[in-house]
Amino acid sequence: MAVRTLCGFAAAAAIIAACPARGDDALCGSVPDLSTNPPLALGHVAAGAARIHFVKGALVQPGCPDRTPACAEKAYLVPGDRVILAMRRDAFVCATYINAKGGDWSGWLPADAVADDKAAPVASSDWIGKWSRAEAGITVKAGKAGALLIEGEATYGAKDPDRVRRGAVNSGTIDGEVAPAGDRLSFAIGENATLPVDKGDELSCKVWMQRIGPWLVVNDNNNCGGFNVSFRGFYTRKP
After folding, report:
1. Number of alpha carbons in the 13 Å side-chain half-sphere of residue 51
2. Shortest CA distance to 87 belongs to which of 39, 22, 45, 44?
3. What angle do CA 160, 164, 167 make, to 5 degrees?
4. How many CB atoms lie within 10 A of CB 122?
5. β-bridge partners, 188
6. Which phi and psi angles does 209 have, rounded to 5°?
7. What is the mean pLDDT of each run of 10 residues along the chain (239 residues)?
């Protein structure tokens, strides 16, 4: 289903205002930091109200998240919509909805409006395929002895006609061979080989990935390409 919003689809970060807030409010508007092994879960909006609105955090409005109408976002979900669940705060859970076109929205939802789904074990074959999000693509192939061959390209500015005209599009690539540990994997790109992520130096490109439901979640350390280039995001598998 498409994301439901009364004012169109936008990134949560675009509505952040400058005001004091707890750190988890900022984190709920971004891709989870997979380097810290956050507890991500798969869920869906439970049966009940016809619309479940996302709830503002304190970065947007002091005193939120709260169940008062003043804290309700215009964006909403309906029963059955699938979400990725992250941190919880009191009676709210940070959730990410990804629409059919790969656009995503992260924000707080009332925890009692969301049901957890039991995730199936992730096999090595579940990683294989071509994954994409705006300005990035990752291809995963089967390697030897249970390893996966991972290649990716990302850009910054490729959707901006002015940057394209000026030749100001930045790019980056990743290339690794690594065995997954169930639903997660990580690696650093060394000079001549793939390294364990903790063996890369401070200048190495480091990548963390997690398979959850139909999606691939990716995080990096911002050293995998030119200025503003990152592979961070929620990816959907191409048919």
Report:
1. 12
2. 39
3. 140
4. 17
5. 195, 206
6. -135, 150
7. 39 31 71 92 93 93 94 96 94 95 94 92 96 97 96 97 96 97 96 94 96 97 96 95
- Other C-beta atoms closer than 10 Å to the C-beta of 111 total 16
Calculate the average pLDDT of the chain. 89
- Rounded Cα distance between 112 and 134, Å, is 32
Length of the chain: 239
Do residues 76 and 54 touch, judged by C-beta distance below 8 A?
yes
N-term to C-term CA, the chain: 17
Question: CA-CA distance, 48 to 51, in Å (whole number)?
Answer: 8
Q: Which helix (H) or strand (E) holds 149?
A: strand 148-156
Q: Rounded to an integer, what distance in angstroms lies between the CA atom of residue 70 and that of residue 56?
A: 9
Identity of residue 29: G
Per-residue pLDDT reduced to its tens digit, 2-31: 354 433 333 333 222 233 345 677 778 889
